[in-house]
Amino acid sequence: MKTRAFTIVEIMIVLAIGAIFLGVSIPAFRSMAGWKKKAPLIEAVENVEDVCRKARTEAILGRRVMEVYLNDVEDVVALSTAPRAVMGMDYDTGAETRQAQAGKEMGRFELTADMEIIAPRSDEFDGELRLRFYPNGTAEAAEVKVFDGTGNYRLAIDPVTGQTMVENEEDL
């Protein structure tokens, strides 16, 4: 009776494949489990940029105006559909009239760093900005500064393309 055994080469190949699998899966598992936290400043910049990017995408794909709410007093960023006028029945007169339909909030972030709205600002600026993204891919121009004790980032919205540009102010 013959017995079959594994050769050293076969064992080494199986061990190499196992090591590659572990090398790829352990870092992915750690990031999913939240073991690797991002720096608060980087996380805040990414949150603002992600909300603006999602607003542009939703505006184009949903063919509707999207709104990003920025509040530099409370350091809050929120995404919502923009309020719009719709035809509806006026219950008092029975006639069909235009009525305002409020926007629906789709997400909100409390930033882990400080935010300052740079532009646009007016004399009556109260720390709040409602930035609109349109279905044709354009947006209202805006500039925001996100900062903490470790650094400063400037985020600008290009009004023609609606895309965000982020610059580290220390690199300028």
State the main characteristics.
172 residues; 2 domains; single chain; alpha+beta; 35% strand; four-stranded antiparallel sheet; minor pseudopilin epsh fold
Structural commentary:
The chain has 172 residues and is α+β, with helices and mostly antiparallel strands. The protein has two domains: 7-35; 40-171, minor pseudopilin epsh fold (3-Layer(bab) Sandwich). Helices cover 28% and strands 35% of the residues. It contains two helices and ten strands, in the order ααββββββββββ. It has a four-stranded antiparallel β-sheet, with helices on one face. Strands 6-8-9-10 form a four-stranded antiparallel β-sheet, covered by helices on one side. Strands 3-4 form a two-stranded antiparallel ribbon. The protein is elongated and about 100 Å long. The N and C termini lie far apart (77 Å). The model has no long low-confidence stretch (mean pLDDT 86).
Quick recap of the structure?
This protein is an alpha+beta fold.
Q: Tell me, what's the shape?
A: elongated
Low-confidence stretches: none
The CATH superfamily of the largest domain bears the name minor pseudopilin epsh domain
Q: Got a strand count? A: 10
Q: How would you spell out the order of helices and strands?
A: HHEEEEEEEEEE
Instruction: Briefly note the CATH topology name of the largest domain.
Output: minor pseudopilin epsh fold
Structural class: alpha+beta
Write the CATH architecture name of the largest domain: 3-Layer(bab) Sandwich
The figure for the number of domains is 2
Spatial order of strands in the largest sheet = 5-2-1-7
Distance between the termini: 77 Å
Percentage of residues in strands: 35-45%
Oligomer: single chain
